[in-house]
RNA sequence: GCCCGGGUGGCGGAAUGGUAUACGCAAAGGACUUAAAAUCCUUGGCUCCUAACGGGGCUUGUGGGUUCGACUCCCACCUCGGGCACCA
C-alpha cells in the first residue's frame, strides 16, 4: 500500500544512507560494455557552509551525470575541496583559529551538506588540495616546471595587496583592486617566483579553435591574452651606438612618424644620460612618473605630459629625417618595447601629444606593410598582452615552494624523495606585511641543508598561489591511489579530455586559463600521453547566477540570502534541486532571482507525482504497457524524446515543463498502467533522485534488489510519435482567421477545398479569386488575395 | 574606443521562418471547510465595438528592409550585461 504522505525528510535521509552503503556511484576505471564519460564542476572552496550558488553549481549538473549513467555511460562525477588559500586563512585569523583546523572542520561539515543534495558523487576519489599527499605532487610538478625553465625567480614590478599583505597575479587584479578584498593595489618591486605562461600565449589562443566551448568564453580568453601583430623597427640615434626599438602594429604609417617616445622605465633613458642636455629636467620627470600609480596614469590619460630629450635625435629609416625623442608616461614600459614611433596623423594619442607640444603632424600616404618592414630593416613581431604568472604568496596557508636557497648554489630544488615539503605548524601565522611570508618565522623549518652542496641553506618561505593547486586537480581524481600522481596512460586515454566541465564565469581568465596552460606544459613534459591531446576540457559550460529575493546578488550584508538548508528542511532536497533546474536554461549566462513561490510550484508538482501511485491501475502488475488512449501514448513517447534531448542540451527547464505536461495528462487518465508509470519515474529520476527511488521500490514491492538510478533510460518509439491528425492553420494575407483539425493524410487539394469552404474564409474574401495559395504541409495554408 | 552576449505578459521563462506568450509563479472567481491552510475547478497580453453571443485592431527594445508569412533573417539605432583598453 502506498504511503499516504510524502515524507521527504525521511525518504531523502534513507536513500542517501543506502546509496552511501551500497556505493552505487563508485566509478570503476573501466566498466564492461560501457563508454567512459567524465564530467565535473569546479570544486568548492571550504568556506564554511554551502550556499544556494553551490546547490546551483552541483545539483543541476548532477541531473546530467545521472541521465548519462542511465544512458549506459560509465560516468565519473567526482568532488573535492580547493582547501588552501586566502579566504580560509583570513576567516581563521578573524576567529583566532588555526587555518588547518578551520579548513578541515569546514570540509567535514560541507561533506554532509553535499550529501544532502543527493548528488551522485564518487566520494572514493575525493581530492583535498591541502593534504600533504596532494600537495606533494603540486610541488613535484612545480619542480618539473622549474627544471624546464618554466618556473623562475625574478625581481619584477608586482601587484601588492596592502590588506591581504601579499602579491597577486595580474588575473587577480580587477580595476586595479584586489579581486578578493577590493583594496587598491600598490605597485612594488619584489623578487618573486613566476611561471612562464607567456611561452604558451600563442598556443593558448590557437588551440581554442578546436574546443567545443561557448564563443564568448573563447573571446574573453583571446582578449585577455591580447595578441597584436606588428613589427619591431629600429630607429638609429644620431651620432650614437644606441638605437630605439619601437613596436608598432602600423608599420605602414612610418612616413608619418615625426617623433619618438620612450617610456620613463625604458633603460635607454639612462644609457643616453651623457648626451641629454636637459638631464635634470628629464630625471625629475622620470622620477615623478615612477611614483604615479597605474590608476593615476589612467586618470591623467587625457592630459598628456612629457619632456623632450634635448640633444638626442633619431633617424626615421623611411624618410631619413631627423626626428626628436621624448620621454612620456603615456608610453608604458611593460608594453611592447617600451618605445614608440609617434604618428600623430594616424594615432589619436600621438595627435593629442603633438598638439600640446607643437610637434609636426604630417599626413603622408600609407605604404604596403610587408615591404616597408623589410626595407627599413624591421622585423615582424607578434606581441601579447599576457604577462607571466606571479605565483609567490607571502602567506601561510598555501603549498610551500619546494626550493632551498643556498649562498653558493643559488635556488636549488628539493630532492624528489624529500617531497612533500610539509607546511610546518606555527603559532603566529598572520601575514607580516614586510614582504616576507609568516613561514620566515619558523626558524627551525627554514634552516636546512643545500640538497646540492650540503652546506647550510634556507628554505623558500613563500607559498604557492591557490590557482596552482587547482591547475591539475582534475587529474588527481584519476589517480586512485592518493599517494601517487603517476597515472597509467590507459587511464588518461579512457578519461581525458574531460567531456564536460562546468563552472563560474569568474574563472574564464583565471582557473580556466591556468589549467589549460598546466595541461599543455605537462603534455610537453611527457607526463600526458600524446594521443590524449593537449587540452583538458573538451566542452565547457558557464552557469548563470542565482540572485537574492530582491534581484540583487545574494549577500549576508544585504539580507537577501536564501538558505538552501532551510528549504531542504521545509520542502526537501528534490524540490530545491528541481526548482534550480527549472528556473531557466543552464547553458546561458543569465541571472535568475530565487523565488520562494517558484519553488512551491515545483514542490506541488512532486506532491502530485507522489499521489499518482494511488491511481488504481498502477497497482495492477499484470498490465500491458500499451495505453488504450492513443493521444496519451503519443504524449508519453514525445516526452521521452524531449526530456532526453533537453537534458543533453542543458535545457533542464523545458525538460521539467514537459514532465509537468505529461503529469497533467496522466492525472486525467484512468488507465495508467504500471509500465508507463515506471517510465515516468525513470524520466523524473535524474531530477528527483530520492522520491523516484522510493516510488520505484514501492512498485517493486520493496524488494530493493535494484536502484532506479541503475536502470536504463527509456526508449521512445518514433512510430508512436507521429500524429494522425494535425491542426491546420488557415491564414488570409498572413493573418490567422481559422483553424481546423484534419487527418494527417489529407492531400493538398483537399486542404485547399476545406479551407476555401470555411465559413470564416468566405466571410473574409467573399467570392474573390485568391491570387496565390501557399500550403505548408501539415501546418498551415495562407490564402493571398 | 574595440570585441562578445542579451532585450518577449505583473514575474522566471517557451517558441530559431509558419496559431507568440508553452510550463510554472503571482492574480481574480468558484468548490470543499464553522473558518483558515492545503487541495481541486475555472479565467488568462493590451485595446476597441457589443447588453450578450461574438467580432475587429494592436503587441516580442525602436525604425526600416527581405518574405505569402519575421521574436526568428538583413541594415541602422536605443538600451542592459560582460571582456579588453593611453596595448602603440
From TrEMBL:
BP terms from Gene Ontology: leucyl-tRNA aminoacylation
Domain Methionyl/Leucyl tRNA synthetase: 40-186
Provenance organism: Candidatus Wolfebacteria bacterium RIFCSPLOWO2_01_FULL_45_19
Gene name for this UniProt entry: leuS
GO molecular function term, any single one: ATP binding
Catalysed reaction, written as an equation: tRNA(Leu) + L-leucine + ATP = L-leucyl-tRNA(Leu) + AMP + diphosphate
One Pfam family from the record: Anticodon_1
Protein name: Leucine--tRNA ligase
Keyword ATP-binding found: yes
EC number: 6.1.1.4
Family statement: Belongs to the class-I aminoacyl-tRNA synthetase family.
Cellular-component GO terms for this entry: cytosol
Keywords recorded for this protein, A-Z: Aminoacyl-tRNA synthetase, ATP-binding, Cytoplasm, Ligase, Nucleotide-binding, Protein biosynthesis
